[in-house]
Design a protein that fits this description.
The chain is an alpha+beta fold. Helices cover 44% and strands 18% of the residues. The strands form 2 sheets. Strands 5-4-3-8-7-6 form a 6-stranded antiparallel beta sheet, sandwiched between helices. A hairpin with a 4-residue loop joins strand 1 and strand 2.
Length: 278
């Protein structure tokens, strides 16, 4: 029988509680989970709702919020006492974009796209199997399609998301389908795997994606991928507007326009454009 190793008696610090994450500072992890929950919320959250989302007692959540509030990461406002992300958290988050200079270098191209298309231009990056909107140039129309900066959209049901989705490898796509599935958001959302794979292949062939009210009803979107120096998807640029201004023939006209702007941004950032046309 192989010799069994018996650990020496534990001295000093008490053993970790069962289920506690190893290699993590619990209070820090909890505080960051609170920031993450507030960032994902469409509006402010009440204490009890926030506590439920982060799976913590309300008393613990309140203590962590008080600490975060003193440092400017969160703030409380309104008659209902809702909690929101604070200015300091926004400042730190903005530093990521400033260091990459992604938004700054893309802004002129977004404005050019808005002028050419007459619709609102959006810029998104890939993060954790989702697309996150990081910049927007609004069109001059009274009726406009707007997104909240920092908001997330699924890869399978949005223009920017599908553009990025199609640019991933087949293995990456398979893994995301396992992790995320294809949840229905509107009646137009593609929820069949075979149909989604066929749609992604079309996007690869033509160089741009098309969101036909798959994420927001009465809204259409055309998008194209922006690539990094390894010809891997970094993000996507899109134009979005109401269905009434984006009929099928207009979509076909704007698709190549969006794709060429995405190519220009890719080259400006030092990336590699994998599509055959230029």
């Amino acid at each position: 029988m192989p010799e069994r190793f018996t650990a020496p008696p534990h001295r000093g610090r008490a053993p970790a509680k069962p289920g506690a994450p190893t290699g993590q500072v619990q209070s820090l992890t909890r505080g960051l989970s609170i920031l993450d929950a507030l960032a994902k919320a469409d509006s402010g959250l009440q204490l009890t709702d926030l506590a439920q989302r982060v799976h913590l007692p309300a008393s613990t959540t309140h203590r962590l919020l008080a600490t975060l509030a003193k440092m400017g990461y969160v703030h409380q406002a309104g008659d209902l006492g809702l909690w929101y992300i604070g200015l300091h958290a926004f400042t730190i988050g903005s530093t990521f974009l400033a260091n990459r200079d992604f938004v700054a270098q893309s802004h002129g191209y977004m404005r050019r796209l808005m002028e050419q298309a007459g619709e609102t231009a959006n810029l998104a990056i890939l993060d954790d199997d989702e697309a996150v909107f990081v910049a927007q140039v609004q069109c001059r129309e009274t009726m406009r399609t707007l997104v909240r900066l920092g908001s997330r959209v699924p890869l399978h049901a949005s223009g920017v998301g599908k553009a990025i989705f199609a640019a991933l490898t087949d293995a990456q796509i398979d893994a995301i389908l396992v992790r995320r599935g294809l949840p229905r958001i509107t009646d137009n959302t593609i929820v069949d795997v075979a149909t989604m794979r066929a749609a992604l292949q079309v996007i690869r062939q033509r160089g741009f994606s098309f969101d036909d009210e798959e994420h927001i009803l009465a809204t259409r979107c055309v998008a194209a991928t922006i690539y990094d120096e390894y010809a891997e998807p970094l993000g996507a640029i899109s134009i979005a507007g109401p269905v009434s201004r984006l009929p099928d023939e207009r979509i076909l006209q704007l698709g190549p326009v969006v794709a060429h702007v995405a190519e220009d941004i890719t080259r400006r950032l030092g990336g590699k454009w994998p599509h055959p046309y230029s």
